[in-house]
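Postdoc handover notes: sequence design on the structure in folder B. Input tokens:
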């Protein structure tokens, strides 16, 4: 498995400098500056500038420094990678890849980063995390997990994946139903088989901390090593659940 510790991965919108500062001051193992879903179209470029400034100017301590770029099917994805890496690649640890469909999408980022690292003479490789949030990706998650040495982890993206799968939450009558067991187990198995980290996705209701704990505990029992957080109040729970067990 990866040598990086990923018990808690806090995502924060790059369009909000105050939230960036708060996230970096938190106890999260990884902070991801989100340039994608958390940033409206009119603030995409401003968010990119904020991310660069945060990487270059703020004290991240021992945190993993990450950005979540826009997809390559958008007008911003290519510039997110090139712009941030050229300006702050020496301060960046990981890039989160949204909505990959197949290994080819990971290879694109790998090739682009390899070219930038060579051009900029960067001394360390920038890692990749891929967010599995399309039905096509879940259907070939084993191939994605093993496709690239730069890939360090997979994240289960519940929101967009539920849309891609056409899930009907209005048909669920038993609140105890675990609709995500298959997706969790398949992603975690693929990660474990290929020596990369499996990260559980975010909880839908940031105010329901008990639900977050239940989800984290369920994912940990299956073999995940961490969980995405959307609010600082969730970090302590993730760090506890995915920390060393009482039995060692």
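Designed sequence:
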């Amino acid at each position: 498995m990866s040598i990086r510790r990923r018990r808690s991965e806090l995502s924060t919108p790059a369009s909000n400098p105050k939230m960036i500062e708060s996230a970096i001051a938190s106890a999260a193992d990884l902070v991801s500056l989100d340039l994608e879903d958390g940033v409206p179209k009119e603030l995409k470029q401003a968010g990119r500038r904020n991310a660069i400034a945060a990487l270059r100017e703020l004290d991240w301590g021992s945190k993993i420094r990450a950005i979540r770029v826009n997809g390559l099917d958008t007008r911003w994805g290519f510039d997110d990678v090139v712009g941030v890496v050229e300006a702050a690649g020496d301060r960046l640890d990981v890039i989160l890849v949204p909505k990959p469909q197949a290994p080819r999408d990971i290879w694109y980022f790998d090739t682009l980063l390899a070219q930038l690292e060579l051009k900029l003479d960067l001394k360390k490789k920038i890692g990749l995390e891929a967010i599995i949030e399309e039905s096509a990706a879940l259907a070939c998650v084993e191939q994605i997990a093993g496709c690239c040495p730069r890939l360090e982890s997979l994240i289960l993206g519940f929101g967009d994946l539920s849309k891609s799968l056409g899930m009907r939450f209005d048909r669920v009558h038993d609140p105890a139903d675990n609709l995500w067991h298959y997706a969790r187990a398949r992603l975690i198995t693929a990660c474990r088989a290929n020596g990369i980290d499996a990260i559980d996705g975010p909880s839908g209701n940031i105010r329901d901390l008990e639900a977050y704990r239940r989800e984290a505990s369920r994912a940990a029992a299956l073999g995940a090593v961490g969980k995405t957080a959307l609010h600082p109040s969730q970090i302590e729970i993730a760090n506890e659940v995915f920390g060393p067990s009482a039995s060692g």
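Context for whoever picks this up: The chain has a mean pLDDT of 94. Don't rerun without checking with the PI first.
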